[in-house]
Batch of 4 targets.
Target 1
Amino acid sequence: MLQLRVLCPPERTDHVLRAVRADPGVAHVVVSRGAALEPEGDVVEAYLTRASADAVLDAIDATDLARAGAVVLTDAGTTLSAAGERAEAAVPGEPDDAVVWDELVARTGEESRLGGTFLAFLSIACVLAAIGVVTDSPITIVGAMVVGPEFGPLAALAVGLVARRWLLVRRALAALAVGFPVAMAVTGVTAFAAEWTGLLELRALPAQSQVSFIYHVGWSSLVVALLAGAAGMLSLTSAKSAVLVGVFISVTTVPAAGYAVVAATLGDWWQCLGSTAQLAVNLLGIVTAAAAVLVVRRRRSGSRDRVPTRELL
């Protein structure tokens, strides 16, 4: 279940209470009048099912309430409640499969921000991938896949396109357009520095190696990217977030970027081109499949797509 906490002006408390209590997916409602100090007002708390979250947020006018107070929606964790079980039974569908659109937009929006941490993780992942290429180490390549944070902007791009949130689309594109060139530049400098200091010896890349799958582009590359994008978005839109680790390992986005840098450093432009094409195929496939999953789930749930409060503030 989810926990909803609303800090609202006293004149709007009764409206919030009526809206919350009218939904069959709400199990518990608590009101503390005058409890909020900044801004001054009342605090309303409720426990509700994931399937009811969007309807309740619409009913209480969450967008307007966010301007005057705050609306917080969090995972309630382990909840032992007979009323909670009755609330989940009263709402059609499986609780874990419900899509909370405000939560999805807010989460992908946070993970798509271009900042120092994002650039650091992407650069580290790209350098790890380059080391894996030079040492012919698939294990290091897998490590680079896990470290890479690029799925956040890719998911945000899919959400923004489907929900027509152009600010989210621009933010995701900026993260990808700036992040990958910066990470590849850092990798190139690191490669030259490692060779100059003798830490690594850059030699011609063999035509066949344990990591040659990175630049071999084919239908399998597109299929894997589509499946990874679908699985990743299913994980984000449900309560099964552990699946994301498998998604990170299955796609060759960061490894392709690292391989392209190493190949360019050695003047092997054919393999550099192949790696770049692999990167483009994976990025396009992930976004396409993720967007398709969102379209299908949106039609099945019938949820209305609202502008999330955090994008308005």
Target 2
Amino acid sequence: MKRLAAASAGALTIAALIAPAHASAAANSATTSIPVDPATSIEMHVNANCVAAENRCFFDTTANLLTPDGPIGFPGDTWARQTITLRSSSRDTWQEASYSAPAGNPRETKGANHENVLSKMYRALNNVEISITYFGGGPIERFKADGDSVPTDWTYGRPDTKSNFYACSQIQVVYGGVNLTTPTACAQTTFS
């Protein structure tokens, strides 16, 4: 009887070791803020999520005012400039990225003007920078951006799923006597 139990336990262990891996993702988020006055602050939120089954990392950002009643959008006289930087922990990794600003618009790889939100993507050898300029205020949804990137190894031309992925963002907001820039919020993740 003891031999049968030992054999069953051994078979279960082997089955567990050779079972196919499930597609999984690794996600991380970061939030920074800067006070406008004792009751209000400007927040920058960044989320990053790398999906191994797709060899792709996704990101999204949101900027808002945080008031005692909760998060709200920005006043009508707002002008703001947001910068999003996508990079890897490997200097040999290129970011093949696209984005939407505001989120929900068609994906861009160069630049666009959607709803008086101007955006432009700048590519470097090992990072991508997205610059978004907002003319006018509005609800929180207007200050959301999202996108994806395939971190690609320059040497082999294949997706780099071993290095860390970073999505960082900050925003400068100007309205009614306010001119403030949030600290940079960085979400760091890996493929799992």
Target 3
Amino acid sequence: MTDEASMLEIGPDRSLLLVDDDEVFLRRLAKAMEKRGFDVETADTVAVGCVLARSRPPAYAVVDLRLEDGNGLDVVEVLRTSRPDCRVVVLTGYGAIASAVAAVKIGATDYLSKPADAADVTHALLAGPDELPPPPENPMSADRVRWEHIQRVYELCDRNVSETARRLNMHRRTLQRILAKRSPR
């Protein structure tokens, strides 16, 4: 998708809210999205993101899931209330399936795992509702699928290790060791 083609698809309201607490990533993405024709506003906390979402609801938004002062899904909820037609993409460095499901249930248009570049974000923001994403070039390994399932159950148990271990029929210490490790590729 060329920059010119994406500009034609943006529409009359080019407002875009970016919410992320990674300052370098936020600046880089803001600059790239401005080059693609968006009118960008940035926020680095849930609180600032919610204020901007209420005062000047954007047509588009990209929200990081985990921010220093809370959960990015709170910003998504405010966006849904303030402007129901806002197209929201949730970004996260924690690629858990449970988080993706929660984001879409609350009203996110799409969900991308970091690192996502400006082209991925633009495509997700402007994709039609019936447009399916391309199949992954590198599908998840069996270890990754197992890790994603454990993360999903852990989130469903409100991050309670003992309850998660009980539901997975696994020893609590084993689960703690798995949760302490980085996700497999």
Target 4
Amino acid sequence: MSEASFQQPDRRKPEPLWYQVEEAIRAIVTSGEWATGDQIPAEDRLCALFGVSRITLRHALRNLEEGGLLRREHGRGTFVRSTTLVAGTRALTSFTQEMRNMGVVAGSRLLDCSLTTANAAAAGALEIEEGDPVVRIRRLRLGNSEPIGIQTAQLTAARVPGFLDAGLLQGSLYEALERHYGIVPVAAREIYRVGAVGAGDAELLDLPAGSPAFVVERITTDERGSFEFTVSIMRGDRYEIRSTLRAGRVPSTSRS
């Protein structure tokens, strides 16, 4: 790699040095100069190339590791990891935005988009009657062109009139819903379960049938209530859940 690829941080900018280094490394990975599995230069070399201290560099590397872009191996070094969606404490975002935040190019392949009726689970999630019309969108989700999961979203049809004829699935679904229907997500509830990939989904995900997967149910609401119920089957080897636990005082119990 040419040393010209390493953009040293501008100390006149308001952004912290570690943030500028983090974004510079993210850009190198996103451009493909560092491919999946590549070992990145050692810390002392990176410090010299970016012109920053080891503390600053480690701050940037830690953020990229926690974001799923890099993988540290004790005694070996730091590597560009395979496309992995890391779940944990995060903002309410679309898949497209979440992947973008990780420096990964999001993609999808539309498997089905049709008008159907709500079953009991969808009706309960969307707060409608069983049998009411819903728009069903089934997509293979990709990160850097690699399959990550299969998402099946159901939207309350009454909230999105004309959706099937509008050609709104070229990019982010949430962006399309906001632009065409004024639907802006304000909250979501997610439930994670461990499951196995079925035969039909396994072929799409390029996995053996029965491989471990995360099954994620998501109910998304706007100011008017629930509008989306999504069930995702995410590859167990490309999806992680991370959380930070902090010590705290245990509330005292009083007796009277």
